[in-house]
Every structure is written in C-alpha cells, then in structure tokens.
C-alpha cells in the first residue's frame, strides 16, 4: 500500500465527530481506531442471529432501519435465472463493511495476519484447505474418520451469498409460510386443551396392534388384523392406511418432503425452491419420464418438525412437570450464587455460565423450551457408498435421567445419499425455518400439569457435529485453516513450506519459515477465549470481499468462509459461542489416532526422517504383538457393563476399533501397560493427558478437579510439542488440532457444564438404531425416513398415553430381587437355605457386630455355628451390578467377565475389595444387607503420584483381609487388571482369578453414566439366576 494512500474512517470516538462524519486516516491509525468502530452492530446482529433477547458482547441496540428482512413469499416465475440465484440480499451499507471493503481493495487481509499466505500462490491468494497426501496419518478404519482423514469442502463466494439468502428468509420466518397443511398448522396454533384420551376401543386396539408390529411390514399388520376380525366379528379394526392417518391426526406429526439434487449437491429449498436443475452439477430436478403436470422429484428428503413433538410432551402431566428441571436447577444455582456460595461442582448444563446468565437476565423463562441440535452422517452399508445424514433435537429442559432416552429424542430430518450432502444449509433450512418461526411467534402448548395453555418460546442453546459437519454448520474453514480452532480462539497456526495445511503449534520452528508462520512462541496465557465481537468484525470483512481472490485471502486470514445458518435464528447464544467441543471424536478417535501413530512410528508427513526411528516409536515388531495380546487378555477382568472392552489392538486397530475401546485403552490401560516400554518423559506426558481426560469425562467435576485438569493440560500441551515436534519444521504435522482443542475443554466446561452430555454418542446411537430397522434394501433411504417418522409418532403416543409404552415398568428389578432403598437391591441367585460359614469368615462377622451393637441379631446368628443365607449379586444406584466370588469362581477365567471387585467408602476412606458374597443380618424389624469382602492393600502411592493418579496399583490379600461392610457403602464396580498378564493356559483352568500377592490395577469405565442416561443397562440385569 502506498504511504500516501489513506482509508476512510467513521469511528464513533474520533473521526465521526469531524466535519463530514469521518476522516481519511493512515492504515496504522485505521487499525488503532478499529476498537471504536466495533460499537456499530447493525449487520453483525443480523448475521449473528442475536436479538434483543440475547445481545452480543459489547454491543449496542440495533438500528432497525439498517436492515429490513423481506417476507418469505413464493416466486411466480417458473425458473429463476442464474443471476437472480447469485444475487446477495439487499442490505443497507454498514460503516464497518465500507471500511472493510476499502481495506480489501488494498489487499490487506486482516490485522492479525496481514502477510499470511497459504500454499505457493502468494500473489493471487489461492489457497487449498485440503490435506495433502504427504501429511495424512495412517487411518484407523472406524465408523468415523480421524482428524487426518477429514476433508473440508472449499466454500466459494457464491456459497457465502447463498447462505445470506437462507439467513434472510429465516429472520422473517412465519408458521404460515413453513409449508404445513392447514390441519397441522391449526393444531400448532390452537392445540387441544385436554389430555389425550382414546374412547373407541377398536381404535385403541388398532393402534396397539400397529405399534406392536413395529418394524413389520403392512402385510404383518393386515394379517394380524384379519385374524382378530375373524375371531371377533364385532371388532372393526382400522385398515393400515386409516390407522396411520389416525396416528398422524392424534400426534400432529407429519413429514415435510422436499426435492433434492440426485447427487446430494443441494436441496431445492428456500431461495432455490423453484429451480428445475441443480446449479452445481446440472442434474435435472424432476423425473424426465413423468408429465409436467405430475412432476416428481428424482430424490427427496424428509424433515420432521419439532413443534408437534414438543406439544405432545406437554400433554402428559408427568412429562410437563419434568420439563421444569432446567429452569428450576438454574434458579437454584443462581440463588446460591446470590448468597455468595459459588458453584461447588460443575455438572449438567445448568451449571454453565452461558445458561445461568440467560436465565438470570430473563431471556429463558420457565415455560420456554431449550433445544440442542445434533447432526452426523454414517455409511448404511460397509462395502458400498451409502452416506446418510440425520439430525435430531434434544430437549434440554428434561433432566439427564430422561433427556437422552429414546422416547424423548426429537427426530429432525433424514438426508439421503449415497453421496454426502455438499450444502448442509439447504437441507437444514426447512427445520430451521420452522424453529425460527416458533421463536418469533411462540409455540402454544397445553400444559397438562397446570391444566392451562401457555406460550412457549424456543431457544437453541447448542449446535453439535463432528469436525467437517461443524465447519459447514459454523461457517469456518475447519481445523486445516490458519485459524482452525473449533471454538474460534485467536491462535494462528503454522504450515510447512509449500504445504497449505496449518497446525496449531505454539513453539516457533527453527530454520527458514513461510511468511505468516514466523511469529514467535505463543504463550498459552495469551490465547483469549472466543469473542463474538471479533467474530462479527471478521465476518464483515469476509462478506465485504469484492472478488474471489480477496474472499480467499480474507477467508484464510479470519478463518471464516461464510456466516453460519444459525445466524438466522433470533434466540441463540452469541456466535460462535453455541458450538461446543465434541468429546467423543476428540478423546475417542482423534487423540488415540495421534498417540498410536507416534508410538507405532506410522504417522505420515515427515520427509527428512523415518517416524519408526523416533524415540517414542516403541510399539513395533514383537513388542507390538505382545502388547496386543496383553490388551486382549485384560478383557476378562473387566465387568460386563464395559460393553466394548478393548480387543487385541495389534490385530484390530485397522478393522473398526470403536471409540469406547480406544478410551479404555488410551486412558486406562496405556498408562500402566506402557510404563516400562515408553521413555520416562513420554510416559509422564501420556499420564498427564490421561488424567485430564478422565476428569473431563466425569458427570460431576469439582472446582479443584477442574483446576487440576487445566494445570495438567497447560503442562502437557507444551511438553507434547517439546517431545514430539521439537521445533522441527519436518515434524510440524504431529501438532494436530486435537491437542489444542483438548486444552480448551476445561474452559468450555465453565461455560457449558460437563461436556459428556453434548457429545456425538447420542446421534451415533440414533443412527445405529434406525439403520438396524431398515427392511427395504432396494430403497433404504426412503425406508429410513419412514422409520424415523414412525419413531417420532410412536414416541409421542407413548408420552401422551403411557399404557402404550411396553418398555415402561412399575419396577425395573428382575424376578426375586429385594429392594433395599436408596437405589440398592439384592439380586438372585439366592442360596436355598442358611448355611454355616468357616471360622475365618465368622471372625469378620464378629468384628462387624462389635462395631454395630445396636443391630438386632436373631439367636441363630449369635451361636458359635454362625449361619447366613447368601445372595449372589447387588445392584447399585449407578445401575451397575456387582457379582460375588460365590458364583463367579464356578467358572474358568476364559468364560468370565469378572464383576466382583468394588470401590467402597468406610469412615471417610476409599477402599477396593473383592466381594465373596452378600447376605442379610438382623431380625424382622431391622435387617441390614452386608457383603463379605477381601480388601486389597493400599495403593502404591509413589506410582500413583508419579503417574498423576492414573495408575492405582493394589495387591490382593485374600483371606488375610476379610471384612464385612454395609452394601450401601459400595459406590462403584471396578475392573482389576493384573499388572503381569497370567499365562494363556491359566485362562482355561483358573477358577480363583485373583491370586494372593499379585498386583492389580483399578480400571473404571469412563462416561458410564452416559450409558445409564441413554437407557443402556448392565447386561447383568437381564440375567435371571
């Protein structure tokens, strides 16, 4: 830029006060005044989606004259021209955008990255955000791609303009223009003010038969209907068509069907609804063999609207009461904060600062509904391309014990394949338009608990997706870009010479560096939290680009490629604060893929050295093979509720190793199995990461634990770069975004509460369940859409009519169980009679009775021949089942998943013991359930501290440490994995399993409560002994 050339500035603090309302200033002065121009928020508020309900940080009231949204009206022309399709919505000029346009014309992208370049074309600013072949890591063949495999579609200036059109329509959404028929629209705006009741027994029977046939075909229903009507001629059951229509009328749940490109390029929705061909690939929209009067789309997708599903929830008195959980919990915490008590521990969403602030300011009220959005894609068939994308809405108002259950998950839409969708905005638009209309007009619900009608407003608190989907939804470049942080912090990445893939390295590499990557070492304390003000300002710069070259320069400099589709919603958190970190992909796939690539020496990307020669590459050859066997043999020492115990990692790592397997292996097994294999610095770094990850997966995290995780990650992130990257430009690729995102996680928990409740585990489970229901291989996508619709309708009926829910039980205990209160229960097997016990066990019972003199003991339990009647199992409040040696020792180790080791607390001390058996003591008026346990020795404290609390090694003491404990002191069922793997022959003949003098490592399942919240239960509950 010539020194004498100046830029027009209209900052409110200085230049706007001068004659003419502005002044021409030098570039440096324009930057200095930039903080004063941030106060103008007209376009920013529109793009951000904030309203007077949720103003962005540091914002002022929006001038309504700056932007007037157009009504969503259907066009009359048959086919819009390409010029009409690409027009940007007419926006009034904004001072900041004008400034940015002038800056763009001078080819200076952004203050923080004014000389950044990517790739080899410095003049044109061409950038390729794809991952080159020489930098990709060895893939792990799993259901999800790893970070190194993820591909982010390049977003063009045309795509950005199209997104602006969608946002404009969302900002003016109305229910009347949402495409609903009059009957459903009337039900939405004027719901029935009574609980649902079925008075016709024939209709009730037809619905029950239809629901019972579940995944069956139409022929199945008709066959049952005909059989019933032959046996009972007076019964008139509805036909298959009529019962479906009846359910639609009762629930109000019908699909919105839209055409889409046959190649999944885009959907014909919103501003593209009248196009007759795909503007990207040119494929025709309609089937050419049909007449023009009966045009049918060649491919269609379904959207299931959340409004009727929410209304159904409120028509049940029980569920309506449950819907107050979120607000009541927030109000309780706010009350404690006002009293100066503070937040003792971070748990569910109400403990996060974002939600607490919204409730405290009255943005979210007791009758409002808070939604979480989640989307993901999957391959329906293993051996052919069959991509299918699904998105759901999660009701945050419900407590965590109900929120993730199948009955309360709201299906949002099914996007067919076989190719992945290119333009997600066009597919999300129908569902988002409906939600936006409910935000603007409110949702009328009949609250059965209060027996009154209420107007509820929707608030979308989070948008959840994996890496590539999040980049498309969030409007950012993804983690391959210079500003590739998932939560949009200020860290600027670095790239290798000639390679456009950026990495979030803190330490400056040595040698000659590409321009824009030669900045000095970055202190972790200097990385700021995501700012909506910075995001808005950078977004304006990108929107102001006047050519494709300038757009690519600004995209690279700011990390933003387009506004987010969420910007069209008026009731959200300020962008980009609504997009959390996904712990499932981060800790279950990305981090294990990184560390295993380093430990095995197979991470790709280096040209100057062979990774197999690096000091960390210890898992090779016979060591790797033997390590895999050790992992496999540990399986028998894990309880059955480890539904995915790690298999032989040496054999299975490339054939579908699951995220839960990786988590158990990487953060539970690896710290002790690699202790004598890895070098000391590498092992300590691994232990720090493992300890932090274990803390971050807890359902409740104390303040001290959160601080501990943050301190561990502060050290681990820097150590990781010093050990593995060592400022070597050739090794820059090992500093993957997973390490950086993990460092952000403790701060995210402060803002959102624990992140275990907003991972992609939920949507993965939904996809798996729906995929298993496919019964029509010839057209799986249409069949999947129908299954999703039927699931929504059935769930709504089960909520409104609980007697239709066959999974609902008065008691979840199996036959013969004995409830003990507080969530505990004794489960069979039960000994046939009371039997005399050995003297060493009698001594343990005598000590227990001496410490509990108030316990009423019957005469037969006071004699020298002490008799008890044994129970085999115990259910804990965590829905785990503890077994006992009484029954487990009847089986050899290879037939067993040992579940008799428990963690219990007595006199404030935490102990681990092997349960020998359970029994009851006392008379009729006072009976205690107790357990005879063999207590393990105290842990090796030196190793425990050196491993940063990841390796808890205890020695088995056998009969020498017998103790009787109250079963209500048992807190958890744990696995006890031997430090030294037993010989293979012992697995076939060993009936003792635990041996005196041997050392065992305590292994607890990570994220077990998420299994409980989603409805999964310990398989032991299904066993009737």
TrEMBL record:
Ranges of compositional bias, category Polar residues: 101-113
Start and end residues of each stretch annotated as Disordered: 47-155
Protein name per UniProt: Uncharacterized protein
Native source organism of the sequence: Pycnoporus cinnabarinus
Phylogenetic lineage: Eukaryota, Fungi, Dikarya, Basidiomycota, Agaricomycotina
